[in-house]
Design brief:
This protein is of the alpha+beta class. About 30% of the residues lie in helices and about 20% in strands. Helix 1 packs across helix 10 and helix 12 runs antiparallel to helix 13.
């Protein structure tokens, strides 16, 4: 083992000029324009300083606590083990050869833990500081290198036996620790060990490829694991490896691969099948379909900060990189950090972790500090002002001694001491954020924040994985969270909430009254095992167990300025839709059916539900709200629910210890509101079975739960407002203002008017919705103020959406077309490739057309009405009656054009002209029929006949009628009518 150890050169770890080992690159894309020796040296110096700082900064009293902590961790984790055993650290078993019976997932996790502990030893050895008693400890170095060789030989080197359990440990976990150690211990390691270690890590870089595939050994941009935050981790490890082995092509390609994470995801132009990353509306997706800004997004932000540090001082640093991450900060992260608390709606399975939303944000602060050091000018000042604002939030508790980098600790404290940097929140407290591409909504107001978690066939209903977030079933079914100003948000949410809340009664959700079981309860393990398709981490496991999509396509929101309407239709998990093709023992669940809509204004959020039913007839519960308080907290519920009154029903939940937590509710329907005050007890391990030992806790909390109970065999609806920060008296004053009018709440449309703002919101669930002067022709969401509209396609698949508006309008602004017909305008809005972004348009009224002259038509109508049916043939009078009715309709239409009036008059005149008298009875002999009808004329025989007076236009009794002529006339009449009804011009 000791043959690996080279002579120790004092301070060698701080040197940046070693490049003695032969390069080894697997799968590098190109070797042209290789990074220069000078820039490789700069990148290496930057990386080492990021990991261990330097003597000057480490000896600063600011870093004393950190240095002491590093030394303590290194000393604690010194390897001292039985080489014939199966562990380096007690309890961290690496195989089952000595009587244990751990799963392969447990064994792979233990391998990752072992390398993490060893890295803490390497960090202590390499970090120069007078406060670090472990610095360059020769005995520790020998023990560490011995342990690394033992692990390499016994658990890593045979790559046909490795790669069991969780892929993460083999492709990211172990390489993160090992790659850094290769760099920090470079001068003490045999080059052959470095080379072998890198080749071994390459062999485990597989994605879904099987051994022998030529795609193994480098980043595979087509692999579902090599995306987003995971790709950032993998590429940073490969940069470390390239620096340790003087492999410039590896470093260059790793940087290029990392930068693919910076591209904005275009849903219409997916590259390499990758949907993980940031979207144009600020959304962030990881695991293909999970809203994940608050976990994997944080990781990617931090890794990007590291990349800017590595590239500092080189030509590889770019303004594009800095501009991209700057956009992430203000459009993706800041809106989700309510007063420094990362919201629950974007944390995936991390929602059940014991760290709070403040813990999440504290890690973001370090990333922001690191990014600010790469910026300059106004961008740097704005970011540093935001850092100072976040650090001023008492609950956030930013402790720079916990930062991973000593350089970041120094930079943070410099920002805090700089009098030229103000404490400024860059966002206003009066805004709506439409994260429609991850089915989330965030409303920010001066005294509260409100967040909605929706889902669809594009975004997962929840994420459960690896024993975390066990009871997550309804987190994407419209669950909402009310964050109130100036309070500790962990008093309302966080791990205590997840452990104690009834998971079937999350605020805003509608569920059938049926008990569900967790995955371990159903299948006896952390996943559904059914070989060969259902392996841990397989595509099928992801699709049906870990993060299932919904079956509903309707989920979105339309934003008009700082106001919005949002809507969704409940869907089932994908497994229910595919139940017939799944194994017989796979348990599927049928969800309730409901339309849900939210209208977000200033003082209130109006919540509507419609078409609530269950196709299986099960009773249902809709949770109005479910508020958590500390056990024994003095909370009062006031209401008029039990009083017989014609006034609006209302209720307040009032925290007598902290009035900022007060909430009022106004009810607009006759549904019975059920109020339950109870104490609930739970354990952290109830919602994440990975929490054990001292990390597990039993907590008891008090709840006020408001619900509607709904029968499943009939269709029902509901309508109420949430009015934050109101006690009973304040809510009475609010109700007296009569701000809200429910315009309609049916299966077709939910619509609300905010009277004081002059705003209307419409959620059209079908193409048949009609409210006041608006008729929908598409499924869409609309906000409206006067003639200003915001339109959104909640399905993200319609090329256009359309509606008809009473009145005559033209499109003054917006990507839309308007067609006027009479006194109605049909507006068609282009929504193709808009990716769920609200489309704003302004309509302008058209001048009323000049009133048509109806004098002639009126006279003809009067003439027609004076005629009697008995005087004419039934057919000719029927034609007159039809023309008369059409004429009366046009007379009554004030918007009828002159052309329409004229055409109608011509048709009526023709009908009058076409009236025929009934024929008289026959009286002559057969010979009379040969007499000609003439006056002073000769017959065909040239003989004079007597004159007879006849009525004009009518044949004399007994006159000869040319039947051929009549038949021809009939044909002409029919053809003339055909021409008339097909656009032919009538004669005057």
């Amino acid at each position: 083992m000791n043959s690996l150890k080279k002579a120790v050169v004092a301070g060698a770890l701080l040197a940046i000029g070693f490049f003695g080992a032969a390069p080894h690159t697997v799968g590098a894309a190109t070797t042209d324009a290789v990074i220069s020796t000078q820039e490789m040296a700069q990148i290496k110096a930057n990386q080492i300083e990021y990991l261990i700082g330097n003597e000057t900064m480490n000896d600063d009293p600011i870093n004393q606590a950190k240095m002491t902590s590093i030394a303590k961790a290194g000393q604690t984790n010194l390897p001292d083990f039985d080489h014939a055993g199966n562990t380096i650290y007690a309890g961290v078993v690496l195989d089952n050869s000595q009587g244990t019976n751990l799963t392969v997932a447990d064994l792979s996790a233990n391998l990752g833990t072992t390398y993490t502990k060893l890295y803490s030893v390497a960090l202590a050895i390499a970090t120069p500081s007078k406060y670090n008693t472990m610095y360059q400890n020769a005995a520790a170095k020998t023990a560490l290198i011995d342990a690394l060789q033992w692990l390499q030989t016994k658990y890593l080197q045979d790559t046909t036996k490795g790669y069991y359990g969780n892929w993460y440990q083999w492709e990211i976990g172990v390489p993160t620790s090992l790659s850094r150690m290769l760099l920090l211990l470079h001068d003490d390691l045999d080059p052959a060990f470095i080379d072998t270690s890198i080749k071994t890590m390459d062999a485990y870089l597989r994605g879904d490829e099987k051994p022998g595939s030529p795609k193994i050994g480098d980043v595979n941009l087509d692999a579902r694991q090599h995306t987003g935050a995971n790709l950032a981790d993998i590429t940073l490890n490969r940069i470390c490896q390239g620096l340790a082995n003087n492999d410039a092509p590896r470093v260059k390609k790793a940087i290029a691969d990392f930068k693919t994470c910076l591209a904005v995801i275009d849903p219409d132009n997916i590259q390499h099948g990758v949907t993980d990353g940031f979207y144009e509306d600020g959304s962030f997706i990881q695991h293909s379909t999970v809203a994940y800004t608050g976990s994997y997004g944080i990781v990617l932000l931090g890794r990007t900060g590291q990349l800017t540090t590595l590239l500092k001082g080189t030509s590889l640093q770019s303004q594009t990189l800095l501009n991209t991450v700057n956009n992430w900060i203000y459009n993706s992260f800041a809106p989700l950090m309510y007063e420094g608390y990362m919201m629950e709606i974007v944390k995936g399975r991390g929602i059940s972790r014991t760290g709070s939303g403040y813990t999440d944000s504290a890690s973001i602060v370090e990333s922001l500090v690191q990014l600010s050091t790469a910026m300059s000018g106004d961008a740097q000042h704005k970011l540093q002002s935001y850092i100072k604002y976040l650090s001023s939030i008492p609950q956030l508790k930013v402790n720079s001694s916990n930062f991973g980098s000593r350089g970041n600790t120094m930079a943070f404290n410099a920002i805090m001491k700089d009098p030229n940097v103000s404490s400024t929140n860059p966002l206003t407290n009066d805004q709506y954020y439409a994260f429609n591409l991850m089915d989330k909504s965030v409303l920010i107001r001066p005294n509260y924040g409100f967040a909605i978690s929706r889902s669809s066939n594009r975004v997962s209903k929840y994420e459960y994985m690896s024993g975390e977030n066990l009871k997550s079933w309804y987190q994407g079914d419209g669950a909402f969270y009310l964050y109130q100003d100036g309070i500790d948000q962990t008093k309302a949410f966080g791990i205590d909430y997840q452990a104690t809340v009834d998971p079937n009664k999350l605020p805003g959700v509608t569920t059938v009254n049926e008990k569900r079981k967790t995955i371990p309860e159903l299948y006896g393990g952390d996943f559904y095992s059914h070989e060969p398709d259902f392996e841990s981490g397989s595509v099928t496991q992801n699709t049906y167990v870990y993060f299932p999509l919904g079956t509903n396509d309707y989920s979105g929101s339309a934003q008009l300025d700082q106001y919005a309407a949002a809507g969704m239709q409940l869907g089932d998990e994908q497994s229910y839709a595919d139940k017939d093709k799944l194994p017989a023992d796979f348990v599927v669940f049928k969800n309730a059916e409901a339309n849900k809509a939210w209208f977000m204004f200033d003082n209130e959020i109006v919540v509507l539900g419609s078409n609530v039913h269950d196709i299986n007839g099960r009773a249902m519960t809709t949770t109005i709200d479910n508020k958590m308080f500390d056990a024994g907290e003095n909370v009062t519920v006031n209401s008029n629910l039990d009083k017989a009154t014609a006034a609006k029903k209302w209720l307040t939940i009032e925290d007598n210890a902290d009035s900022k937590r007060n909430v009022g509710y106004v009810f607009y329907d006759n549904n019975k509101v059920n109020v339950l005050q109870e104490s609930r007890t739970g354990k952290y391990s109830d919602v994440r079975n990975k929490t054990t030992g001292s990390a597990d806790k039993t907590v008891t909390k008090d709840y006020v739960t408001l619900t509607y109970q709904q029968p499943g065999n009939t269709t029902s609806s509901y309508a109420y407002s949430i009015v934050p920060s109101k006690n009973a008296d304040q809510l009475h004053d609010y109700i007296d203002q009569n701000n809200v009018t429910i315009l309609k709440n049916t299966a077709d449309v939910s619509a609300v008017q905010e009277n004081s703002l002059g705003l209307k919101g419409y959620v059209f669930f079908t193409a048949k919705g009609q409210v006041d002067d608006v008729q929908s022709h598409s499924r869409m969401i609309m906000m409206r103020k006067g003639n200003d509209f915001s339109i959104q396609d909640p399905t993200n698949k319609q090329a256009t959406v359309a509606f008809t508006l009473k009145g005559r309008y033209a499109v003054a602004q917006g990507d839309a077309q308007a067609i006027v017909q009479g006194n109605a305008t049909t507006v068609t809005v282009n929504t193709a490739a808009k990716h769920g972004v609200s489309q704003h348009l302004t309509l302008t009224p058209l001048a009323a057309p000049k009133a048509a002259d109806k004098t002639k038509l009126q006279a003809l109508v009067n003439q027609s009405k004076a005629l009697k049916a008995a005087d004419y043939t039934a057919a000719s009078f029927a034609a007159l009656t039809t023309a008369l009715k059409a004429s009366e309709t046009v007379l009554a239409d004030p918007a009828a054009t002159q052309g329409t009036v004229n055409q109608t008059a011509n048709q009526l005149q023709k009908a009058i002209n076409g009236l025929q008298k009934p024929a008289a009875a026959k009286t002559g002999t057969a010979s009379n029929a040969s007499q000609a009808k003439t006056t002073g004329k000769t017959t065909n025989h040239g003989k004079k006949v007597s004159q007879h007076k006849t009525k004009k236009g009518l044949p004399n009794t007994g006159s000869v009628i040319n039947h051929a002529l009549i038949a021809g006339g009939a044909v002409l009449l029919v053809l003339g009518g055909f021409a008339l009804f097909n656009g032919g011009k009538p004669t005057n």
